Amino acid sequence: MPILSHLSRRNFLQTSGLVALGASLAACVPISAKPMAAVGPAPEAAVADADGALARLMEGNQRYAANKSIDIDEGESRRIEVAKAQHPFATIFSCVDSRVPPELVFDRGLGDLFVIRTAGHVIDNAVLGSLEFGVAELNIPLLMVLGHEKCGAVKATIETLESHGKAPAHIEALVEGITPAVEQAKTKAGDLLDNAVRENVTLIVAQLQKSEIMAEAIAKGALKIVGGRYDLDSGVVEML
Ligand SMILES: [Zn+2]
């Protein structure tokens, strides 16, 4: 994808240090001259592997956390480009929390990320199948399991276990999915909720690595599965 197509013309000029030059040209060329953006942006190279994908993700998160998100191209030309085929460079398996939308957190646009979200990123067969599809059919080299600060699903699991109760209806399936992480976190010093959030990511990463399709891809060097924790206050994704 052309990286510079992600930049608005204003940002392109600023980031290229061409603002002054643009102003000089504006002063000496006719108004009908083509704008500088027509010079043609260099295309963003496809990621070569998981490390390249991770670097691209983290660069996007650094921009987001620093309030320097670029003007994501979600316009018609990009829509037409990705309508031909999708080549997302990373899968994000994250919580449904409205404060953690992956495309915003990683400052990426249409066609970049393959996103699966469930409360507390709990896995079931449909989720696992979706994640395996990303590996087997789309050859996505990186899968990030993304937990986050103050996860409500993890908190609800802690409260349910403490009250020796049961969550209503299908919410109990989430509690069951997150319980091993809470049990693991209880053996550690520090904040139970935050430790459980971290354990939940680590356990899900380990669980995914056991999938036959994932294990094969990992063995071939075609896939890496990593864990991250998103900080609601700073916007920073920390690698676990
Ligand atoms: Zn959550």
Descriptive account of the structure:
This protein has 240 residues and is of the alpha/beta class. It has two domains: 1-45, no CATH class; 46-239, Carbonic anhydrase (Beta-carbonic Anhydrase, Chain A). The protein is 46% helix and 11% strand. It contains ten helices and five strands; from the N terminus they run ααααβαβαβααααββ. It has a five-stranded mixed beta sheet, with helices on both faces. Helix 5 (102-105) links the parallel strand 1 and strand 2. Bound molecules: zinc ion. Zinc ion (ZN) is lined by residues 95, 97, 120, 148, 151-153.
Task: Provide a compact summary of the structure.
With 240 residues, this protein is α/β, with parallel strands linked by helices.
Features:
240 residues; alpha/beta; Beta-carbonic Anhydrase, Chain A; 2 domains; 5-stranded mixed sheet; 10 helices; disordered N terminus; binds zinc ion
Strand content: 5-15%
Count of folded domains: 2
Please state the average pLDDT score: 87
> What would CATH call the architecture of the largest domain?
3-Layer(aba) Sandwich
Shape, please? globular
List the helices and strands and how they pair.
Elements: H1 9-15, H2 19-28, H3 50-65, H4 76-84, E1 90-94, H5 102-105, E2 113-117, H6 125-136, E3 142-148, H7 152-162, H8 171-186, H9 192-209, H10 212-219, E4 224-230, E5 237-239
Parallel strand pairs: 1-2, 1-3, 3-4
Antiparallel strand pairs: 4-5
Helix pairs in contact: 7-8, 8-9
